[in-house]
Amino acid sequence: MPPSNITIKKIDSPTEVDVADATAIFCKLMLDDPFFVALTGGQSHLLPVLVRGLIGDIAFKAGDMYGALDEHGVMVGFQAWTPPGNSQLATAEDKIRLRDFFLALPSDESRAYVSQTIGVEFPKLQDVLSGIPQCELTTHWCNFNFVKEEYHKQGISKALMDLAVQKSRENGWTKMGLATTNARNVPIYERLGFVNEGYKLMKTPINRCPVWIFIRTLD
Fold this sequence. Notes:
The protein is of the alpha+beta class. It has helices spanning about 15-30, 35-40, 45-60, 90-95, 100-105, 110-130, 135-140, 155-170, 185-190, and strands at about 5-10, 65-70, 75-80, 140-145, 175-180, 195-205, 210-215. About 45% of the residues lie in helices and about 25% in strands. It is globular, with a radius of gyration of 16 Å. The protein starts with 6 loop residues before the first strand and ends with a strand. InterPro entries: Acyl_CoA_acyltransferase, GNAT_dom.
């Protein structure tokens, strides 16, 4: 159970401030993550530009955003989910959110790599490892799950996820899924009821990135 000063809730009408706060939490935790290092070509100043677009797509159109707020209303953690039938950056209109990021990339080659990775290769990897065709599209998918480091191990991630589980149950969705590129998250997701469906060390132009895919089946 989270501390008594933390409020866990669905953010019903996310704002640009909510997206910016979530982006800041993500970037502080994931600056050295190999997957996002590859997507940004190692240019760390591009990370918030990319992530703001990705989170914004979910918050404003594709899915749901859940937040953990302290007694001052400051976001200390968040999750972003897409329901079955929706996926991140599904249309050309959605991809406009990444326009600033793509314009900042240094070459056509880097833009092509990002488009291919986000749009084709990573979804294909999810399908192969999970054994579920169009895995992200057919499950209740967790795209982001991040809590400020000083609030780790306080039950916040579980409390946020309980809201997503509740929505799955209310809608009769039996499969929930997520991916991680950090080994320390593997036992955490297993404790949250997810099954590790597979692992692959993905090659990128500048590094190697571990990927784990998890699925939770609701009774």
